[in-house]
Amino acid sequence: MASEMSLRLYGSPLVVTDSGGKDSTVCREIVRRSGIPYEVQHNLTTADAPQTIYYVRQMFRQLELTGVTCSVNYPIYKGQRVTMWTLIPMKKFPPTRLQRYCCQICKEDSCKDRFITTGVRWAESTKRKNNRGVFENFTKDPSKRIILNNDNDEKRMLFESCTVKGKRICNPIVDWEDRDIWEFIRCERLLVNPLYDMGFRRVGCLGCPMAGKNRWTEFRLFPTYERAYIRAFGNMLEAIHASGGKTKWKTAYDVFSWWMEEDKIEGQISLFDLPEWQGENVT
Ligand code: SF4
User: Fold this and answer.
1) Is residue 264 over pLDDT 70?
2) Which of 252, 256, 265 is nearest to 209 (CA)?
């Protein structure tokens, strides 16, 4: 149905959005098997692990060899290409659970005026259970959003006959449980992002505020990303001071500590800040 609506209303095929995670793997496969025309797009967040980038590249290469159009969307803010590291000083605030501006710029701003599929699932959060359906008419004004959860939904005809363009979303695996996802992947022998073999349960930006304390593990495995955030926080403080703003943070490490939700007492230092605890002296 989504494919028909995409062709009829938008004059272009359905877009499968691919984050590089397991849910995208399943979406890609069920859309491929359905035999409908489709494209695949990946939103580059610039904070994904190298494994995710290489995995997406590999999958796109295989799909392109079968004639499927694949593309990568680069984040744009205020008319210029940005990365997570340039965005933080521009916004003058680190991304947090409540202020996920990075998601809006790096992920949600893409695929305008297209009908897309996502791998959103109710099992991932209770909020999604209440706010996401099989079909969605995406708009920033919540009062104008239309969400359909089943074929008999009373708004279905309204949704189907609406000819005003905008982003529309189909969530084909919205009611799949985790075990359904893994069973499908294993039974069909699908190749998944190697991060899962490294123990990751969730694949997304490294350091994502939604990952909470798991970020410590992520930064132990990928210390370059920790340094990149700290550098971005330093640039952010410079941008705040240059614009005459004030902040309670004195250094980039203060920002990092606050952002990582550390219960640090002011003036407290880490043992690892001491020279005798660094390098070869540590046993
Ligand atoms: S860090 Fe988290 S909130 Fe920000 S773009 Fe990545 S996934 Fe979205």
Assistant:
1) no
2) 256
